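Supplementary Note 3. Input sequence used for the single-chain structure prediction.
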Amino acid sequence: MINPSDLCHHISELFNHSFVQTQLLRRVKYYHLPYQKHSLNISCFYDDVYLCLCYDFEQQRLANFFEFNHNMKYDCLGQSACENEGQCFQEDQNCPRKSICICSPCFYGTRCQFSVNGFVLSLDAILGYHIQPQLNMNQWLNACVAVERVITFIKGINFRKEKSKRIAKLVLIILLIFTISTNICDPFYRRLIDKENEHDKRIWCIATYSSSLQIYNFLIHAFHVVAPFIINIVAAVIFIAKKSRQQANLKDNENYRELLKAQLREYTNLFIAPIVLAILALPRLIISFLSKCMESADDTLLDPIEYFISFMPPMLTCVVFVLPSKFYKEKLLETLIDYRTEIQRHFKQVK
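The predicted structure, written as discrete structure tokens, is reproduced below.
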């Protein structure tokens, strides 16, 4: 925190207007007067040419002033190694041997190469092009299952299992290429930089995302969440409507609306699963779009928690798809019982 006494004032705040308008050499000889007035409690002030500093010497307050370039660019004479608009300073203007960087907000490091921006800090900046395609594939695979369910019901006895397998393999390849291609620009925004200090030298891989790339990432993430969600909902509506219509044709005494309500109650899980997955994916969309600096220690814990929530959809696929469905739950229990029996039989053979 900067104390008020350490703030450097302009001469217009200490002297009257007529004095400020006088010739430079005439007014300079009076610059020591504000320092001798202890009530002002100032340590420095400046004009367009000089910077004046005050110090105590043998119970006296003295002032030294020197020329100061207010238009300095802080770029180490055009050879700055600082990044992200960091200011470069050298220990000697004529023959510098060392330089340091003063970083802008949201950046740190010897060259201001690292960011505490919420988006860049996330694992997307480290393993983004490895993680994102898998997360997106999970959403699209769920949508493909919903579409296949509808096609299977509509085809009925004309459904061909072998043909469905061939189409599924082709769709998987297309989806894999598509999800990877939407993140293909990520490697082009990565670069290697050298970091040297007194003890060692390291090479860092830095991801630098522009504002336009952040918007692009947000739109792509939104598309990979919203499009599969819509496909899941539309497929569920078509499936329930077709099945209700089929039962209404077979049962003349049954009302179509009543059958539709009964099917909605029976297949509620078809709506619950995509809605839950879309809600769990919202933190990822929010984090990818709202870039902010971590200004307190609390943010260092909050940001990773928000980010890892976005990884819950792939981990909860079984929960949101199987448990709400009575049929799937029964099949899961049967499978678990078969595995348990097989494991027990294996241990008995070992003994």
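Residues 171 and 321 are 21 Å apart (CA to CA). The two ends are 73 Å apart (CA to CA).
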